[in-house]
Amino acid sequence: TYKQRILHNARTEPLLRNRMIYLGFRPDVEHVIGAADVVVLSPPRNLSRIPEGERFNADAVVEHIRRKGRQAHVWGRGLNGKLPDPAESADLIARQVASNVLPGDVVAVLSNGGFGGIHGKLRDQIAARALLHRQGI
Description:
The protein is mainly alpha-helical. 47% of the residues lie in helices and 6% in strands. Helix 5 (86-98) packs parallel to helix 6 (118-134). The radius of gyration is 16 Å and the shape is globular.
């Protein structure tokens, strides 16, 4: 099927990973994102080779979600508003998510790659926060 072909090609074509949302996946992504209580997006990188009209705009998606009454944020920018390298951006997001997550919350990471090790960083940050919570700190 069309989506299976796109997924297969995305594994071998890195540029395609940044365009998948516009190649038949947008309704699926919006449905999944729309089910979340809080959405955190990171701005995409390396958009220079993608035509302007096809670029993923995290700020626009956040505004769309907020208009529907949901919490949404663009996190992962450095203090100067510029995008740091993926590992640093993942550190920023992991710290921000871990400082806001509560016991019983479910955190899902939707990513088109390793994104600077965010999966492990989130796990470690949330575990550290849970330990401090159990210790009453």
